[in-house]
Amino acid sequence: MAAILTKTLQDLELPLVLEQVTERSHNDLGKAAIMAIRPSTDRQTILTQLGQTSEYIASFSNENRIPNHSFDPISSELKLLKIENTTLELGGFRRIGAICITVNTHKKFFKKFKEYYPLLLELSEEVENNTEIPELINSVIDRFGEIKDDASVTLKNIRQEINSVKAKINQSFGAALNTYKASEFLDEIRESVVDNRRVLAVKAMYRKKVKGTVMGSSKTGSIIYIEPEASLRHSRALNNLEFDEKEEIQRILNELTAVIRPYASLLSDYQDYLIHIDITAAKASYARDINAIMPEINEENRLYLKEAYHPLLYIANISNKEKTWPQTIELHPENRIIVISGPNAGGKSITLKTIGLLQVMLQSGLLIPVHERSSVCLFDTILTDIGDNQSIENHLSTYSYRLKNMRGFLKKCNKDTLFLIDEFGTGSDPELGGALAESFLEVFYERGAYGVITTHYANLKALADELPHTTNANMLFDAKTLEPTFQLELGQPGSSFTFEVAQKNGIPYHLINKAKKKVARGKLRFDATIAKLQKERSKMAKTGSRLELEESKARSEADKLEKLNAKIKTKLENYQELYDHDQRMIHLGNKVNKAAEKYFLDKKKRPLVSELLRIVETENSKRKKKTAAEAKEARIKKAEVTQEVQQKVKVIRQKKKVAKKKVQIKERNAPRPVLKVGDRVRMTDGKAVGSIDSLEKNKAVVNYGIFTTNVSVDQLELVETAKK
User: Can you give the pTM of this predicted structure?
Assistant: First the structure.
């Protein structure tokens, strides 16, 4: 168990995190076990728990969902099984059977999907598989929780007799009901049921007229409930049989309890297994809600939290629809201690608590909300001094309490310690308290401890610059708006912006100026220098971020242009090859055409064959011999280029066709010109131009020079009007 005090866990608010985890648990035993979780230092235990939780998270997003693990606790049954000659109740057997079935289902599931859930498979294999217990219980108890008729031969016979007697009771009661039904002895309801027995509803005035045993009366006394005399004998027999039935059931349950008693230890393991699964499922559900992961766990004493979120703040801000600012911080052997400074309400304490809480969460087997590139180590001891620790019970002031706390730090602090101190040195005279805090910090440093402190003291900031493995950090503050940015920056101390914040909050300027005069000039200049450096650093950081973004965009555009240039170059080469090939084919076709024309004129075959052979040999001499693979590749390439060209040609033709259609529609919709004799015209689907010789009844005689034709005026379009 890690040397981590309960007060440390409370300072870091781990119990509040565990309460949120319990809200995702399915039963009280799981909730109690979650609240009892404490940090560990056993590396293997932590890795196993984190790995199991990660595997469970994976089941949320794949089709192989882990089976339901809900169960009713059997703690009271386990206690009874430890006591000889005790008998379990029917409900207890049902709970035991259900737990056995649930565990067996889990074991089968994890064995089937062992590639997905290796750690959970290993956990399930720690408990023995058992199908005998549910089989024994099912042989005695049915799915409704009742003892089966065939649980024993005796019980079966008894229940058969009970059914027979009940039939006789109903028969005799029916006869009595029919006898008295015709009379006016019975009330309108005629019959009722008292103590599970059918009774006649007799009017009070006729109670002596009906033979039988009085079983009760109505509230008003107007109705007397009587069991007929004919049914009484059978009812007594039924009572005896029911007593025998209870005795037999008790004997059966005694036997079943005795058979199951040797499995008490196994059943306890089953319950513990399901509690562990419930805890793991609750952890996984919580991790999903806070976007938590399993970071790398190193052995180099390096704590690197990238984009770390405080889980409690993250969930609260989601509810309030507010932004949560992540922090990035790193501790390693060359930078073991960080001194954070800056104005109040700038996020120093939250950053400190985030580091501590995530560390204790991780060592408690909980996944943490950080970037996947984060890397963490384990600490044997975690010490905290956070908040106003005034102890009313011990009559200690804040400063006295903090000194007592520091005494504990000095006893426990070593190279395997992580210490977290908020507002280090406060509570006493600034100069004296600062000097004592400086001495404490030097001791922690000499012992090789890791830590993060927040402070306003200038001497601690100066010490952080002097010690080789210690660094300053500040919470960034917008100097213009005097609003915190909640971002941690390593490398330089931060100004408290005391006077600037005071001025922003409406403190009169003359009071601020008066206060400045009371401060030592060197102190004021030192703080002003820090504030100025912080402003410059903030400007440089913004400029650097902007330049990095622009450089990234430029690099991205250059890569795109380079890829586009290469693609265009490749296409041009392919088109050139296709063009050269087509030109060569045209040239070859011309040669063949000439040979064909010559043969057409002289009908001489030999010169034709000779010329064709010469053409073929000339073409073959230009070809390079290729392997089958190269030839195939060339054909495929040519086919691809041809297909691409054909596709583009098709698109171009389609565009031309659409454009032509638009023109035609436009011309159709436009008002048609009035044609006159002498106008030059052409057919709408032709190219030849002629002149109109005569017009008569929407018909025109068009003279094309060589011939004339008679056409409809609607088929003509005007090319040029007749000159006057």
Answer: 0.65
